């Protein structure tokens, strides 16, 4: 019997270093690189509805990656989203919403798709919307994912770093993934490839953050206001870099608070995208009239 | 700086259906099949020591899979294990101990191995010890893993069911994995292959349990005392089957308690093997004198 409503938690994913790999097949398109999934993330609730709609904390919003996922199911659904992290700031929110919607719609409809098939569907939606290249596969895995080969399950190849840590982050503003990916990628790809190579030689969280910083400078993606904060954390003996792609500083341990900031605090997530029953979702006031 | 002690949690893994696939290369050897990882599991603490030793809740024990892992590191280590689940009863404890030891030793030594490399090392140790064929890769993933192709990362192929549930289990006794795997596997392999095929057509938790039950009967592995309890749960409208390989009944939701039993209760785990800092490990009284 299909449930009346499905709640899904998808961890935020902060990429530290990456390179872009485009193929004709969107399933084979993606990024190589490394990141961290966080215990802060995106909470998605999916319910059957008369007409499909996406709500974000009380407001109706349009998210192309979510619409593309909804199109794959023979189901009209109301998708309600609450986020622990800001949108557009390098946390992979679009991929998370797409993945949560895919898991929810599958549970409410024919339930014929495996976890990999749902991740593929959401990955393709995020790639085609131009909003992400590797967040979905990382968010499905959890932990500290290394994307050794780009693409959806069966195309890409995931690995990881078997560690855990307290993570601090400080959002300073948005950055458009779409416009960065539309620019010249030669320098970015060269910096991403060598950073990944060095990370695989010593796959630790420290290497991840220091190579992320080297990548942020080498790719020329490091925003000035982010660089200032990162420099302060490093000067204080901490480890920090920039979330790709957003004006967000992330640090391991107490790097940001040691430097005098008041960051958000969370941990490495280990579960990846998952269904739950304890997820609070804010329902917009105009919701009842629409259903 | 290497930590003084590393704590790792590895979820128990209950296989419901499987087939055996042996190759010359132990990395490519494994099982196809499906199972569930549990929030009950195995807690491993690893510390540097003068001579390697394995303690289980106060007693020194010999676990071949763990010894094989220790041999791969240039490190003498004291491995202390506490388990939420009984040993030898179908919970993949040997694989869990091997995997926890691998993650701990890596963190204490040169930290040159990725998560996949650590899983490969523990998988090979479990295969060569004859104590497991698919637990390690499932325990590294977490959730409800489907082993579509057998073997370690890069050889096998993992998928999963994107659901969650309360799980009940009732251990009734041990069963030797080694002796079952040494027997005639034709019937078992045929039953396992067709059960997996049907599961992939409708990859839900209900299908997993009903196909597990069909596999348990078809493979003739279903022990009489387990069959009696499973029949009672099913007669009461519940879903249950037998943990492979142990005389343990598992049920989804409240199947066993509805039938009047007092089972252990846990949930689907979603994190897979992971380092933690909040893990209590029992230290044996003779420990201090050995260090």
**What's the helix count of chain A?**
10
* Distance between the ends of chain A: 21 Å
| Largest interface by Cβ-Cβ < 8 Å | A-B, 36 and 36 residues
Oligomer: homodimer
What features would you describe in this structure?
2 copies of one chain form a homodimer. In chain A, 35% of the residues lie in helices and 28% in strands. The first copy, chain A, has 10 helices and 12 strands. In chain A, strand 1 and strand 2 (30-48) form a beta hairpin. The radius of gyration of chain A is 18 Å and the shape is globular. In chain A, helix 2 (93-108) packs across helix 3. Chain A has 291 residues and is of the alpha+beta class. In chain A, strands 1, 2, 3, 4, 5, 6, 7 and 12 form an 8-stranded mixed β-sheet that branches. A 4-stranded antiparallel β-sheet of chain A has the order 9-10-8-11. The interface between A and B is large, with 36 and 36 residues.
In short:
The structure is a homodimer of 291-residue chains. Chain A is an alpha+beta fold and 291 residues long.
List keywords for this structure.
homodimer; 291 residues; alpha+beta; 8-stranded mixed β-sheet; 4-stranded antiparallel β-sheet; globular; disordered C terminus
Which helices and strands occur, and which strands form pairs?
The structure is a homodimer of 291-residue chains.
Chain A: E1 6-21, E2 30-48, E3 53-56, E4 59-60, H1 64-70, E5 77-83, H2 93-108, H3 115-129, H4 135-141, E6 145-149, E7 157-160, E8 166-173, H5 177-182, H6 186-201, H7 205-218, H8 224-235, E9 240-242, E10 247-252, H9 255-258, E11 264-267, E12 274-276, H10 287-290
Parallel strand pairs in A: 3-5
Antiparallel strand pairs in A: 1-2, 1-12, 2-5, 2-6, 3-4, 6-7, 8-10, 8-11, 9-10
Helix pairs in contact in A: 1-2, 1-3, 2-3, 2-4, 3-4, 6-7
